[in-house]
Design brief:
Layout (H helix, E strand, L loop, with lengths): L14 H15 L7 E2 L1 H8 L3 H13 L3 E4 L3 E4 L4 H22 L5 H15 L7 H17 L4 H18 L7 H15 L3 H27 L1
Antiparallel strand pairs: 1-3, 2-3
């Protein structure tokens, strides 16, 4: 278990915020695997911090559901399951539909141009070797219309749900060709400012991830 080092430019305003952000990123990327014990001493050493901000960060992450705290045993990365993903996606489906209905009609031509650029960049990174870069671009793509909803609270909730789903996106060696083809399909609805077309495509987009997680789950049980 190790957390990749980041540059000096990543230093935030508080040590707790820094530890929280780094641990959250490591959970999302799979550097801290699902179910693994999160030792405050080990994390503090890897982050070059004292135990205090790391423990505060873990406590905060447990309170928001990113990690699990077991009394007398410590902190653990959340276990992954298809049932958990279904719960996350059922909430995402409701909130994303609302965000698309609010935001898609307000997309600008510059937004569409930027989204086309992101799809092209994702197209160059569909190989599993570039999964982390692909996922970063993917998130940028989807949050352009979310932000156009005009609701910071809605965007904040969606950020939380996307964070919760992120560990599932890094399971196994994934070729993203099929997913990016659906981004191209979404662009048609986005350019037409047709939120219902975007919502329909996004529903199938989530189903791809569900199928992959179910396959991963089956492979673990054999």
């Amino acid at each position: 278990m190790a957390i990749a080092q980041s540059g000096a430019g990543d230093l935030p305003e508080t040590l707790v915020a820094y530890a929280t952000r780094r641990i959250k990123a490591a959970l999302a990327s799979g550097e801290l695997p699902a179910g693994s014990r999160l030792s405050p001493a080990t994390l503090a050493k890897e982050l070059e911090l004292s135990h205090i901000p790391v423990r505060e960060a873990l406590s905060s992450l447990a309170a928001t559901g990113y990690v699990v705290h077991q009394r007398g045993r410590g902190y653990f990365a959340r276990e992954l399951s298809s049932d958990d993903l279904d719960d996350i996606y059922s909430l995402r489906e409701i909130l994303e539909a609302e965000a698309y209905r609010r935001g898609v009609p307000h997309l600008t031509d510059d937004d569409i141009t930027e989204m086309r650029r992101l799809v092209e960049e994702m197209g160059a990174r569909v190989d599993p070797r570039f999964r982390a870069e692909y996922l970063d671009l993917n998130r940028q793509f989807h949050f352009i219309p979310f932000r156009r909803s005009g609701s910071r609270r809605l965007t904040r909730f969606l950020n939380y749900l996307w964070d919760a789903a992120q560990p599932y996106a890094t399971l196994g060696e994934v070729d993203s060709t099929e997913g990016n083809a659906e981004h191209r399909e979404m662009l048609t609805g986005l350019a037409a400012r047709d939120p219902e077309a975007v919502i329909a495509t996004m529903r199938h987009h989530r189903d791809i991830r569900r199928e992959r997680v179910e396959g991963w789950e089956r492979s673990r049980s054999t």
